[in-house]
Amino acid sequence: MKIKVLGCYGAELKDFHSTTFLINDTLLLDAGTITSALTLDEQMNIHSILVTHSHLDHTKDILFLADNLIVGENNTSVEIISIPEVIDNLKSHLLNDKIYPDFTVLPTIEKPILQFKPIKTGESICIAGLTVIAIPVNHAVDAVGYIIRDKKSSIVYTGDTGTTDKIWEEANKLPDLKAVFIETSFPNRLSKLAEISGHLTPSMLKDQLDKLKNPDASILVFHMKPQHLPELEHDLAEIKNRRITTLKQGEVFEF
To answer: CATH number for the domain including 170?
Structure first.
């Protein structure tokens, strides 16, 4: 499983881009940064997007990807995959012919650029040779993380979350778990803000990782607020019993 970091931050500043990961060149995890990170040819290779929740920093580039593909006369649909609550938000508030065109009926109803695929939490689905399971997490809106497996390994992707339990229960069932991609948005001194917004601090991250039984899985941190990056890295360095890496855009991992 090859995973490329297209964006890994919890805010947008110059050279800091919103969260998106590219798996095996065809599947996206979230959609905060697509069109500014991929060439048009690379964008045309995208078949599916797994969306964790409906906040703009995880969904906005669905719109611009669709626009690029329809202008480029792409002949295949991109599947937007998530739980029904997230899909309903995207239909009602983004692809509604008011904020942006409804690309689920363009260029034609029969062959649209985008197709929605609702999934249930706990349901195992197959996407491009990968097994994917959505797991509920604790954020400010309806949200899920994902367990993603191929024949060799598994990874956990939390999406945006505060303190949560179910995803760790499921992670502990994975004998081939190689990595946990987990958000940590705010430094420890902003713990109250993290709590009310459904995010983590390094101290809260440590408490979450205490629920993970696998001591060898790589812990890959994303969604850092770039305004607080030095302080976040300082706080993360205080966690001594885990292999923790703060992600950088452009990195590629093989599992």
So the answer is: 3.60.15.10
